[in-house]
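Lab channel / #folding
Pinned by the channel admin:
"Please post every new chain as: sequence first, then the structure tokens as a reply. Keep commentary short and put observations after the output so the thread stays searchable."

First post following the new format, from NK:
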Amino acid sequence: MKGSLVGWWRWAIVALLIYLGILWSGQILPVNPQGLWMRAGEYALWATVALGAIARFYPVLGPYGWRPVTIFLGAILSGLEVFIGSGPDSKTRIDEWMTALIGIAVITILARVLPRSITVIWFGQEVKKREPFTRTPR
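Reply from TO:
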């Protein structure tokens, strides 16, 4: 993509590895109602890295585009992970999916309210340099 920053693929690889880890942990550790909030933490970690990858890959989209894309992608991936394969009954699966979405939503909300000094590094905007403001001559 034009305007994408070098290094977006590193963030994307880490996001993919985190997602594969979530898939692996879903196979190893069965989901029970007591450990349901662990899903929110796993997907919050995934959303943090995925949001950074999306912001670096398509910087022109801006924060108002990155956050919905992250939520949409997270909803699809967490839905695939939760609903495909053997597992607990459907009520527990829906609870598991909703807690995963809560984890993703918390990160996208934090991306909006965190100070600029943090989000500049997170979204890969540290390479943008602005020239000092000068008034136009009259």
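NK: DSSP finds five helices and no strands in the chain.
TO: also worth noting, The chain has a mean pLDDT of 82.
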